[in-house]
Specification:
Number of strands: 7
Order of helices and strands: HHHHEHHHEHEEEEEH
Strand order of the largest sheet: 2-1-7-6-5-4-3
Helix content: 40-55%
Strand content: 15-25%
Structural class: alpha+beta
């Protein structure tokens, strides 16, 4: 069946292409090239965070995939995307950003607590794959000119956003 072979090879081509965006681009360009972070990028734009992330860096972005945003309460996503909630959205997004280059290699088999761009610490664990706040990095070490993207299948909640549920802030 020549059709099956063609579909198979074009699938393989798509997968290879998704994983190899141009590392010369900045973290936003590279994230866009993977095709897996459209919701995250829309949120970055809505929050006015683009300018910062196009900067020199280096940045590590623990970028939630589109699947991660689909798993969120959509009413909450819509609420955060409204202009009047821009500061809250920015606080949420900046919790996913660390002002250093964290890769599987640099983290190694350690547990570290880097400070996110919003001031709260993240827990990054490299002892069994790469995890951030216990979420597995599913698209690791996507290199860009001004940093690295670590794709995760969850939207991380900064302690300040979950404070009302009585959870400890872990600061």
């Amino acid at each position: 069946a020549p059709h099956a072979a063609l579909a198979q090879s074009s699938d393989r081509f798509l997968v290879a292409e998704v994983q190899t965006p141009n590392p010369e681009g900045n973290v936003l360009e590279v994230a866009a090239a993977t095709g897996q972070f459209t919701r995250f990028l829309a949120a970055v734009e809505a929050a006015g965070y683009e300018e910062t992330l196009r900067g020199e860096g280096p940045f590590t972005i623990f970028a939630p995939t589109d699947d991660a945003f689909r798993q969120m309460d959509q009413a909450e996503v819509d609420r955060l995307m409204q202009p009047r909630n821009r500061d809250e959205l920015l606080a949420l997004l900046s919790y996913h950003v660390v002002a250093e280059r964290l890769t599987s290699e640099t983290v190694g088999g350690r547990n570290t607590r880097p400070e996110s761009a919003n001031g709260y610490r993240l827990t990054v664990d490299g002892r069994d794959g790469l995890r951030v706040n216990d979420e597995l990095v599913v698209m690791p070490d996507i290199t860009a000119s001004n940093g690295v993207i670590q794709g995760i299948n969850a939207v991380l909640s900064p302690p300040v956003l979950v404070a009302h549920s009585g959870a400890s802030s872990g600061r």
